[in-house]
Amino acid sequence: MDSLVRGRREYTENHIFYEGDIADKALLREIFKEQGDISSVIHLAAFISVPESVSYPHMYYKNNVSKGIQFFANLEEIGCKNIIFSSSASVYGNSKDIRVTENHPIAPESPYAKTKAMTERILRDYSIAYGMNVISLRYFNPIGADPEFRTGAFLENPSHILGILLNTLKSENKQMTITGVDWPTRDGSGIRDYIHIWDLAAAHVNAVLKIAGTQKEEGSFEVVNIGRGDGVTVRELVAAFEKAVGEKLDVKEGPPRDGDVAGAFAVCDKANEFLGWRAEFTIEQAIRDALIWEDKKKEILIG
User: Model-level pTM?
Assistant: First the structure.
């Protein structure tokens, strides 16, 4: 189910697909009626750009929070009580400790991050009041593409670093700007935990299997960090990208964007133990797959 406000219709081909908004109660009932016994729902519907959320907070609170509330209420009424929620490591905010566990203080900086923290709070309350079982996956920074190259990133003006690097490579002057170079990291650039998108997808499979096997009458709520468990700075990622493509980029330095933070990387012990999951792909593999997809997507995406 996707409104296709930001998604691609090409990615729905050869799949069971309903076009519509998650707050549409009638459509949700239709899906459950036609598809039979749906035991769990993975909720990924959200706007995700930090700078955009700073400029248009109302749009983010409406789409990410208000519609989510309606969606969860409709699920509860239908009787589906298992939810995997797409959360974000941005809920940790500008952490003093760049290694974060699930018990780290919640201090979201941007409206986007606040929508994720708010929704987690709502789902925690729903688990207590309505007996819902929720696993909230706090993604770190997904990069790469489907290793079989059926899907991948598609925005023309991405805000994430690997998309920016790919666009820089195609540009005439090959110039990019590292936004923020005075952070308290080993080289001054922001630090992130980059995870291959296929590892992230596998985490969702494990989460669905886990929630199906651990239902409780009184409901349950768990948060789980999903990352590689190691930190890579922006400068280090740029260097790895240059090595992969065999070219040097014209790298400039600039101030941080609105809502940016120094960054953090995950302690993934809970993902390993609770979900039986760990990341398997390397940063180099993620860059390689993103580069291949950049050429391959021309055959798949229309317009």
Answer: 0.91
